[in-house]
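1st attempt posting a full record on here, be nice pls
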Amino acid sequence: MNFINKINKYLLEHYPLIWNTRLVWMLGVNIIIHLLFFLIGFCTVNDLSDLKEHHKLDDFFYITSNVYYNVLISIFILLIWIVFYLRNNAFKNLYSIKKGMIFQQFCIVFIIILISTTQFYSFKTGLKIKTRSLYSWQEIDNDIKVFNKFSLFLAQNQVEYEIDKKEYPAPFPLKVVVGYNHNLEANIDTTQAFIKMDGRFLQFYKFNSNYDIETNNSYEARSEIVFDNFDDRTIIDISEFKEFLSPSLLNYSKQEFNYGQDTLDYKKQLHFYEEILNNKDDVKIKAGLSEVLSISKKYEIKHNLTVDNWFKLIDNKPNYLLTELINESNPKEEYYARTGYGVNNLSSGKDIPYSKRLYFDFNNTDNFFKNVYESYFSGFDIVFLYFIIAFSFCLSILILIFKTTSIKTLLLSFVASLVVLVLIVWLMSSSNNLFGYSKYNEYFIMLFISFLIIVFSIFSYILNWKKTIISIFWSLVLFAVPTFFLFTAFSYSRFLKDVYLELNPQNYNYKSNFETWFQNYGFWAILLISVITIYVYSLFIRKLKARPE
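the predicted structure (as tokens):
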């Protein structure tokens, strides 16, 4: 206790602001807590099964008890700190305080709250370091490439072997439109090549270069849809590939795992598919199957495949048509027999049956690869940081209001804010009746209410209204100023997009330079405006306190 008292006495005599805010002790406590969460994160994973358990690394924190420990600990230490921090208030007790000290106090309070609520980052850092110590990404990357190459032969999902999934050789990939007798000419350009199969009509095409693929290249673009005209597509005759209208290994172009894999890796994978199937190299295929089965043991993948029964299932030369699918889990453990997906069987219109006994269960290996990749290459979780900063900032403002006014003013400000919210909700719900329909009604309402609060806060100070009224308006203006600038940015961004769409009505994905800038830096710009507002508040609240009632 003597040691603590000596430090407190020294801080009181030399750094009264640090003493009053308990900054030193809060930093010390939070360093210990952050180290504790780092160790918890480090000890969370120990083997492969742990990393398979959750879809991403954040889930080890958010969907486990760790998040509750974090919340409880943060609340506990902040409540204890607030009790000690609110014991002394030089401002209310009319002690002489230096200019800028109120603002400095706010900054320290904000830092204390921020570091008391960011244990997640320490936890995730420990989790990443432990994962990297257990597994080498280079080794895993090589295994992913093997899986991607030979997942071709797994034949578990019929849809992936349909011709509309084919990516090689030229002219593929192609889009497909399906027509029936009742709407044939609406969907199919009957003046050009098309194919009749199983009572349906298929026509293959590519979008023209001037067509907005980004907004139209959807599932509907290759399924049953009525075209107003055929000018936006170029019809391709695929008569030479007609044998692949039935599901075939030669149509498969999927990348089973894409973590850490770039475009070049994908091109190499497609080249491998084309080469190994065209060459019909049984020795190379069996060697690849054997390698996959060997790696499967390493990642605890459940299956009952052998090189022989697997090869026998897929060895359907020359076109490698599928006759039977491999189950994704043990069929003996399922309650019913699988007979195929029966969804989007575009080319054949028939369901291929699943094997009654063969299965290959990845057993959440995808989670493992994703989590290891994230531990090596993930970026900073900026969205969560934005939330924590916003929360800490708002709580710091509330504490600042209480420290510079009173609990009565704080409660009245809370009531006033509720009234403002009710008014905003009413205006927005009635905006069409009051102002007529406009896409800018919501923006106008938010700007108008915020502007009124700002104007009244200025007039209340200049016209020397009651201190309580002035304090209420000033409490509201701390939130109204950033809100005003935020909705100004939203409305300006919307205006720029509307002007552009009038000239280019098809490009709905347009983003103005301002919108791009605001998405990247808008949060920090609004935060800076809020800081400036609080600084101005801290200057004038001293003068308000000095006024007689």
